[in-house]
User: Fold this.
Amino acid sequence: MNTLLTFIRSRYPDQKQIALHEPRFRGNEKRYVNDAIDSTFVSSVGEYVTRFEAMLQDITGAHYAVAVVNGTAALHMALLLANVKPGDLVLTQALSFVATANAITHANAEPVFLDIEKNTLGLDPDSLQLFLNANAEKRNKACFDKATGRRYAACVPMHTFGHPCRIETVLDICDEYGIPVVEDAAEALGSLWHERHCGTFGFMGVLSFNGNKIITTGGGGAIITNDEAVAIRAKHLTTTAKKPHPWLFEHDEIAYNYRMPNLNAALGCAQLEQLDGFIENKRVLAKEYSAFCVAEGLQFMEEPIGAYANYWLNSIFTKDRKDRDTFLALSNEQGIQTRPAWGLLPKQPMYTQCQCAPIPIALDVTERLVNIPSSVR
Ligand SMILES: *Cc1c(COP(=O)(O)O)cnc(C)c1O
Assistant:
């Protein structure tokens, strides 16, 4: 493990403190942000928002992108648009960032936690299939819990650390049960599964541009979809449901102030211009980590077969929890920032009452996984 720390230092030779993931602003960031300020359009209307959305469409291949204030808001909105109603159940994975479960709660629904797969770290289609076979039945094109009658209104798989999950298989199972899929692709901008961009398989996909993600708008998120009506509705509901008019302020329902400000979009446009370079840079680093780990007998998280990962955050697996904690302490003491996987969602106090399938893989991964420095160099 000490040799790994030396190796990490050699990858970031100029940095005394090595962050887990920090943004890089080496393009047109200052120019575009200044331009947005000069234009006076710094808030939720402006040319950079339009341009940012067009760039996202181009990169992901989605027909529509709607930029919003953050990834959590994007998830909340996507769930509402998927017709999630108060009291509904939403299937998701036990290992994710807390925002995934929080957004389900914001939609007044309740998460149901399933296991992940070892080689993708994403939702395990077998866990999903087993759970639905045991607990769910399809009635009138919708899916209900056999015991409680509550509706399974959506499924939210997540593409963990930029590694695509087996999304097509997840979709097939959900289709069979009549459950819409909202992909949490917050970490997966630029990641492909069978050459198609993550977030474009399900009913909707969600992206995040928080400061720690592969590109940043400071704070920001987006919904991507191929459905025009859904995209129009997403824009309407994230813009306080204001009826279009040059001067009248009339609104046709209770909605949200979730639009991304132009100032943030200006930063985002400059960042997106560099995305290809960022991914290339990160994939080279991942290859170097991988070769080092093979040589040293360490276990490195490789992109799943069939995937092209953005390698947002690199991960290794330690032998056990004790090894993990030793490595975490040692690295962080030396100014090399490392981090364990998130605490499992069903273990967080606000979610312990929720339904949870058997999750042996998530339990194992959360004990042994460590994220190691992954910033663009
Ligand atoms: C970052 C992230 C989000 C939320 O995005 P924010 O922009 O921080 O609100 C949601 N899900 C996952 C898996 C994330 O990593």
Notes: The pocket of pyridoxal-5'-phosphate is lined by residues 70-72, 96-97, 99-100, 158, 184, 186-187, 208, 210, 221 (CB under 6 Å). The chain has two domains: 2-23+275-344+364-372, 29-273. The first strand starts at residue 64 and ends at 68. The mean pLDDT is 97.
